[in-house]
Design brief:
Number of helices: 3
Largest sheet: 4 strands, antiparallel
Helix content: 10-25%
Shape: globular
Order of helices and strands: EEHEEEEHHE
Strand content: 25-35%
Strand order of the largest sheet: 2-7-5-6
Mean pLDDT: 87
Low-confidence stretches: none
Number of domains: 1
Radius of gyration: 15 Å
Number of strands: 7
Structural class: alpha+beta
Distance between the termini: 27 Å
């Protein structure tokens, strides 16, 4: 089963699911993730410092990727804040941010800008029937 890493800030207080409201995650490499549509994935955090000796994956739940939707990140943070999305207005960008577990779009944009994500087509991995 494929595993997907999450920072602890996206795990609920009980440690057994994603935080309330986080109904999807955005990952690089749309073509790769499209192959996991309809499959279960194990969500994990690191027990210790990631990629260090003695640190292990701590699986906190299993979810099904219901649908994989494309989104394009161009790395610029202009008026559209760097995203080309399959939607028609700025309010939807706020919705994407909140549904991805962020308080607001500014925090969401900072996450991707500071995370050195590559430009290109990315994948929204939906854990519910919701779509944009």
């Amino acid at each position: 089963m494929k595993r997907i890493s999450f920072k602890p800030q996206f795990v609920n207080d009980a440690g057994n699911d994603l935080i309330p409201g986080k109904i999807h995650t955005i990952r690089q490499n749309y073509n790769f993730w499209k192959g996991f549509e309809g499959r279960d994935v194990a969500l994990y955090t690191w027990d210790g410092t990631p990629y260090r000796k003695g640190s292990a994956h701590k699986i906190f739940c299993v979810k099904k990727i219901i649908y994989v939707q494309g989104i394009v990140y161009d790395g610029t943070f202009n008026a559209d804040m760097g995203w080309v999305v399959p939607i028609d207005n700025k309010q939807k960008l706020e919705d994407i941010a909140k549904n991805d577990g962020f308080e607001n779009y500014r925090d969401f944009a900072r996450w991707f800008r500071e995370g050195n994500y590559r430009h290109g087509r990315m994948a929204i991995l939906h854990f519910t029937d919701f779509r944009y």
